[in-house]
Amino acid sequence: MTFPSPNFGERRDGLRPSLVVIHYTAMASCAEARERLCDPAAEVSAHWLLSETGAAEALVPEAARAWHAGAGEWGGRTDVNSRSIGIELANRGDHPFPEPQMRALEALLAGILARWSIPPQGVIAHSDMAPGRKADPGPRFDWRRLALRGLSVWPSPRAPGDFRADASRFGYPPVADDLLLAAFRRRFRPWAEGPLSPEDAALAADLAARFPVDAGRAGA
Questions:
Q1: 46-69 per-position pLDDT tens digit
Q2: 156-166 burial string, b = 16+ CB within 10 Å, else e?
Q3: Which residue intervals of the chain are DSSP H helices?
Q4: DSSP per-residue codes, 83-114
Q5: 142, exposed or middle or buried, with CB in 10 Å at 0-12, 13-18, 19+?
């Protein structure tokens, strides 16, 4: 199979994919996004591009290191590009994700998780690993839907603990408190406003208890 994007290399240090990072393209059309992701001068790429109609395009071999994540970390580990598979969703970031696209994403994720033995908690947002730098796939993305299908995770409230410590145990990087809260809410409470609340802490406590990052889950 010939892959249209030349923007990839070998995964470093023998790493295998242990994460899937979900993005939106933030471009006017899928064609425009494809052109950029396949442009050698742009030096960006992703393994998969999903159009609004649900067409899935393989741009980079899954075994290779695509250039989609950039600076950031998850579970205390950097070089997310070497640890992950990147999926770009054609979406400007200011409107809902169409049903055909979501169905295609579900099918794609199911295959990726099975091929690489990635658990549902390994499916993360670009904004999760790069708080303050990235916002995708944004507050309009339906993470709960994926979780109900076993393709991501969703928290249930439990006794609140230390929000920062629990968010870190789940995987979030050590960033300023406001950036951490914004990233957490963008994924799990996009309607929430104001300062840190007991509801935020209760959800973070559940994620930390049920899905703590360790070497086996985040990739050594």
A1: 999 999 999 999 999 999 999 999
A2: eebebbebbeb
A3: 30-37, 80-83, 99-116, 126-129, 143-148, 163-170, 177-188, 198-210, 215-218
A4: HEEEEEE---SSSPPPHHHHHHHHHHHHHHHH
A5: middle
Token pair of 163, please?
Answer: 């929000």
Identify which of 131, 132, 173, 163 has the alpha carbon closest to the alpha carbon of residue 155. Answer: 163
Nearest 5°: the CA angle 144, 149, 200 is 25
CA 167, 173, 174, 180: dihedral to nearest 10 degrees? -60
157-182 pLDDT tens trace? 999 999 999 999 999 999 999 999 99
pTM for the full model?
0.96
Query: Which tokens in the block code for residue 145?
Result: 């839907």
Considering the four listed CATH numbers 3.40.1190.20, 3.40.50.10330, 3.40.80.10, 3.40.1390.10, the one that applies to the domain covering 8-154 is 3.40.80.10
Q: What is the C-alpha to C-alpha distance for residues 87 and 90, in angstroms, rounded to an integer? A: 10
Determine what percent of the chain falls in helix, strand and coil, rounding each to the nearest 5.
Answer: 40, 10, 50
Reference 64, options 86, 42, 43; nearest CA is 86
Rounded Cα–Cα distance for residues 220 and 216 (Å): 7
